[in-house]
Amino acid sequence: MVGRLFLLHAGVLMLQASILVSGQLNSPPRLKPGSETYFQVSEGAAIGEVLFSLRATDSDAGDVLTFSALTDETRSLVDLGTPVKGSDGVWSCELLLKTQLDRDQGLDTRKLFFEVSDKSAQVSIYIMMIITDINDNPPTFLGLPYKTSIPEDFEVGKDFFTVSARDPDMGNGGSVEYTFETNRREFKETFDIHPYLGHIALNRSLDYEQRSFYHLKVSATDLGDQRCPGATCLCNASTTQCDGEPVDLFITVEDVQDTPPEFERLLNMYYVPENRNVGDAILQVQAVDGDRGVDVPNQIRYSFTTNNPNPFSIDEISGTISVKERLDAADPRSTGGLYILAVTATEVSPTGSSAPADIDPSRSTSQTNVSIIVTDVDDHAPQFNHLTYSANVLENTPSGAPLTVSPTIEVSDKDQGENSRFRISVKRNGVPYNGFTTLPGEGQIIQGSSRVTITVGDTTELDYETENVIAFQLVLTEEHANEDAHLPSRPPATATVVLNLSDANDNSPTFPPSQPRSFSVSEDLAPGEVIGTVTAQDADSGDFGNVTFNLEMDGHEEEFNISSEGVIRLAKTLDREVRSAYSLVVIATDSPSSPASQQRTSRLPITANVLDVNDLDPQWTLVIPVVSVQESALPDTKITDLIAVDRDQGLNGEIEYSIAPGTNGSTLFVVRKIDGRAELSVGSSLVGHSGLLVVKVKATDKGASPRTSEAEVTVLVIDENQFTPVFTNPDEGQYNVSTGELPEIIVDEEEPINTVLMQFKATDRDQGVNGEINYFLVPSLNKDFEFFMVDRETGYLRAARRLDREAKESYEIQVKAEDLGQPAARASILTMRVRLRDIDDHTPTFASQVMPLTMSVQEENNSANIGVVEASDADSELSNRGVCYYLFGGDFLSRLKLNKDTGNLSLKEKINRETTQLFDVVIKASPRCNLDPLTFVTPEDLADSASTATGGRSTSSSLATPPEAYNASDASLLWVRVTVLDVNDNPPQFSHQTLSTGILFDVPRDTEIMNLAVSSGNSQTLLARKLMIMK
C-alpha cells in the first residue's frame, strides 16, 4: 500500500508527487514560493480594479495552467483574468473586483478559494481578502429634534445641553467634531460647544428682555480624509468634505425677576399756564414690571428722585403730578419757566411689601425725567431803560450809519413768548419822522428784550448851517398775539433822543474839464525839465478849501515829480526802448492842516508818452557762427538764416542787410532780406573752395544817422566723396571673379574661435573721413558668413564658430570695404574662399554598430575563424584615418587571436560547447598602431589564460548583461557576442541517476506516475517515456 504525501505551503494544499499518466511522468502545479496568503483592498476600490495576482509554476514543459474560483462567494466577489506565462516560467492570473465592497455594512474579511490545474492535476488555494476602511459616511445626529430651555440667570460656564452624532467609519473617519454654523458674533460669544463631546455651555449672561429665543445650527464633521473617494461614498458630491447635514437647536430663555420697571411712553414736554390753580392735576406717569415673562408682576410706587424745590407734587400710587403752589413763568427756580422733574418708579412685591434689602436697587427701580414748561400770560407793558438819550453827529454822516447814543438804548417786556411782543417807531412832534431809523426797524416785532441802534435815514436832515440840534421821540407799542383776548389797555412807552450836529469837510477837490490828460516827452530830455501843469478847485471854505498836489506812481521808480502847486517835472533820464509810456495819477488833497483822516482827495489819471530817438545799434538775435555746405551746392542754395533787431521806433528800428567786404568769402555768398530775417545763400560756384570761408553780414537801420552792426559766420565748404575703396590684400586686381577665380586662403580646421585667420586691407584716394575705411561681412543665402567675423577698423578676419572640415571643406564669403564719405559712402565688395586643411582630430569608432555584434564559431576547432570587425574614422585625409584593433576585455582572451591591422578575430585554442554556449569579447579601436597586442588585456583575462594553460575550464559570461570591460559611452569599444556551434560528440545520459515518487493506494490502471527522460550531452533530448501502473 502506497501512502499519500501532502504539504501545506503559503495557503495551498499540494500533492508532492509526480504521477505517471500514459507512460509519462506528470508533476502537479506548484504555488510560487513567497506568495502571500492574504491581501488588502480598500472598500472604495472600483469594479474591475486589479486586487491580487495568483502565481504558480509547473515543472512539466508545455503544460498550460488554468485558474478557477471554487465557491459561490468567491465567484460573486472577484473575476479571474486570463492566465499569463512570464519569461521566468511563472504563470500569473489577476483577481479583478466584481462587486462593490462596503466594510461598514458587511464583513471586513472574506475567504476566497481557487483551484490551479494543468488538466492532469489540480491544486486548491485559499487566500484571505481583508477589506480596509475609507471615510465614506457622514456623521448622523441622534436624539433629534434638539430643543431646550434655560433661565436667563443660568450660571455662565456651565453645560446645559448635549448633542450627539454617530459615524460608522473607523479611525479618524469615525471621530466626530462639533461646531456651530453661524456668522453672528452674538451667538458665538453667547454659547460654546465642546468639539468632541458635544456639550453646549453658556459663555456669557443671558437677558430675557434683550433676546428670549435662539435658533442655532449645529454641524458634525468627521476627522477623516476630507476627500470622499469610492462608489460607496454617501456624502454630497458638491461638498469638499464628508460632513453631516447641520441640524437645528432651539433654545428658549426663561424670564426671572431681574429687570427694573419700564416707564410707558411720555410726552417730550408738558405745557402749563402760570394761572393754573393749586391742586390741579397736570399729568400722570405710569410704569410696569420690566420682567414681562413672569406670571405675577410686581406693583409700582412713584416719587420724585431729588429734593430740588419745585411747585409740583406726585401721588405715590397713581403717579399723578399736580400743582402744589402758585405758578410763575418767571420763577427763578425754573429755567425760563422749564422744570425738569426726576421721577423714580420702585417695584414692590404683589402684596405691597418692598423688595428685599439684598436686592440690587438697579434691578428694582427706574428713573425718568418729566419736562414741564410753565407758560406765560400777558400781564406786563414794554418799557425803556431810560427816558432821555443823546448823541453827537457830523453833518456829513452817511445814510445808514449808526449813531453812538448815550446811554445805550435797551427795551424789554417782562412777559414771555408771544405775550412779550412789541414794536418801536420814530416820531417828531407826534408825527412819523424819517430823518432817522432804528434797528430793529419800525416794521419788525421785538419779543422779550432788545438793544436799539439809531441810524441816519435822510441825510438832508444833517445840515449844520440850517439846524445844529435835532430832537425826536422813540415810541414802544404792544403787539398782542391774540387780538380777541380781553386785555387791559396800557399807554405806549416814550423816550426822547437829542442830537448835536458838528460841521465837516464834505466837499472834495475837482479838476476843470479843460485840464489836459496826457503829455509828450522826448527820451533824450534832461531831468528837471517841466513837462506839464495841473489845477483843481474845492467848494469848501477856509482850510477845507485849500488844495495841494502829489503823484501816485503806478509801479514806477520816481521818473517824475510834482510840486504842491501842480507843476510836473522829469526826475530821471528816460529810455523809450525800456518803456514807451507812463501812467501817472495826480492826487489833489484839501485841508492840508487837518489830519489825513479828515482830508478829502480827488484823482486825475494822466499819461506821459516817450518820443523815440535813434540811439541803439541793431542787435543780432540769431547767428550760427559755423555752418557747412557741400562744394557742389548751386548758386542761391540757402545756407543759414540770421536775424537782427533794433528796438528803436519807426525808421530808426527798420533794418537792411548786406555783406561786408574784405573777407575770403565776401565774393562767394549773398544775403537777402526775407520776412525780416537775413538769408545767407551761395552766390557763385564753390568748387575748388573747400575749407573754411569767413563771411561778415552787416545790419543797418534807416535812422537819420544810420547805426550798423556786423555778425561773422564761418562757412565750412565740404569736400565731396569721389573715390571707391580698392582691396590690396588680397589684391582684387589679380583675380577674375567672373570665371570663378577667387582669392583663397587655407587654414587648419578646429582653429579656436576668435583666432585671426588673415587681415583685409583696402585703400581710398579720398581725404579725411572720405578716405577712412570700415570692413564688413556681407550676409549671403549660404550662411557661410556666420562662421566668421571681421574687425570693422583693422580688417582682421577671425573664426566665429567651430571650423570642422568633416562638416564643410570650404566657405565662400563676401567682404565689403566701405568709406565714411559724406553725404554718401562708397564701398567695394570682395568675394573670397576659405579652405580648411584637415587635421587628425577624430578617433576610430564603432558608433554605427548595434551592440552586441553577434558572431559564431564551431566547437572543438583550434584555429576556427570567428569574423572581421571594422571601425570608422571621420577624418578626411587618408593619412589621418589609420585604425588598429586590440583585445580590450571579455572571456577567453588567451584562446583568441585578433589581427590588429585587418580586425580578423579567430581561435587559438578550441572551445567546448557543452561547457560554454557563448562568450563575450570587447575590442578596442585606436589610431595608435605601435601598441603591444596585449596592452588592453585585463588582469582577469591574464588569469584566465593562466588557468587554461594549467588545464582549468572557464565559464561564459552572462547572456543578459555586457561584459565588465565594455563601456557603452566609449564609441571606440566594440562588444562582440560569439555563439559556440554544436557538433555531435557526446553519448546519451539519463537526466537523474536515482528516481523516486509517491502514488495513492487506489490509483487506477494506466495512471501516469512519472516521466523518464534520456538526453545526450549535446543540445537535443533523445528519448522521453512515461512510467504507468499496469496491475
TrEMBL record:
Q: Which GO terms describe its cellular component?
A: plasma membrane
Principal localization reads membrane
GO MF terms held by the record: calcium ion binding
Presence of keyword Endoplasmic reticulum: no
Q: Which UniProt keywords apply?
A: Calcium, Cell adhesion, Disulfide bond, EGF-like domain, Glycoprotein, Membrane, Repeat, Signal, Transmembrane, Transmembrane helix
Q: Name one GO biological process term.
A: homophilic cell adhesion via plasma membrane adhesion molecules
Protein origin, superkingdom: Eukaryota
Where in the cell does this protein reside? Membrane
| Bilayer topology term | Single-pass membrane protein
Q: Where is the signal peptide?
A: 1-23
The protein depicted here goes by the name Cadherin-23
Organism of this sequence: Elysia marginata
